[in-house]
Design brief:
single chain, 215 residues, mainly alpha, Arc Repressor Mutant, subunit A, Tetracycline Repressor, domain 2
């Protein structure tokens, strides 16, 4: 009888390594978010980000090859997270106005949790700062999906009589423009969470009136 084949030794799972890699990258991103918001892209340095994150500059460069790479990953990571969360809300079955309220709540909570990110993002939109370069393909895809889902979700609500019939593209443009203006106004003001949540009540009323439903 031939000898039994030896039992193969299982390869170590890559999951712990991936978790460790994610953790190494995540902590400097939190610090970089604050430093870029305080100093601007031009004024921020890898040395300061490393020191405030508890890294040596050399170790930070082992994780991110340059300040540009760190900045780009920050913008991409935060933006992708927001887009995915918004998509999940839009795709969940619920009455349209309830969905709209959840979208607003999620967006405003994201603002509170990542105010520094919004400072950076708004500077990029207005040309005050480098925007991070070309938008990554995955982020472009998510943006397109969010736009299509927003229009489609509103169109279905109009067909079902939840919202008075109008051009859904124009209505989505109204909603997004109003939300963007609201966030920019908050960032330029005191930036307190209390102020943001208090103003959310009037924001909901404005959007409902714009959609032709009782406020």
């Amino acid at each position: 009888m031939p000898p039994a084949s030896p039992t193969p030794t299982p390869l170590p799972s890559s999951a712990p390594r991936e978790r460790a890699r994610t953790a190494r990258r995540g902590h400097p991103l939190e610090t970089a978010e604050t430093v870029f918001a305080e100093r601007g892209f031009a004024g921020a340095t890898m040395a300061e980000i490393a020191a405030r994150a508890g890294y040596s500059a050399g170790n930070l460069y082992n994780v991110f090859e340059s300040k540009e790479a760190l900045y780009r990953e920050l913008i991409t990571t935060r933006g992708t997270k927001l887009l995915r969360e918004q998509l999940a809300i839009l795709r969940a079955p619920a009455p349209y106005l309830e969905t709209l309220d959840r979208v607003i709540d999620q967006l405003l909570q994201f603002c509170v949790d990542h105010r520094a990110f919004w400072v950076i993002y708004v500077r990029g939109l207005t040309g005050q700062e480098w925007s991070g370069g070309p938008i990554p393909v995955e982020t472009q895809r998510l943006r397109q999906e969010l736009e299509e889902e927003s229009v489609g979700r509103l169109a279905r609500a109009m067909e079902q009589g939840e919202i008075p019939a109008e051009d859904p593209v124009a209505c989505v443009t109204l909603i997004l423009g109003t939300l963007h203006h609201h966030i920019v106004h908050w960032i330029e003001g005191t930036g307190s969470a209390e102020e943001l949540w208090q103003s959310a009540k009037s924001l909901r009323r404005v959007l409902r009136r714009g959609l032709g439903v009782p406020a």
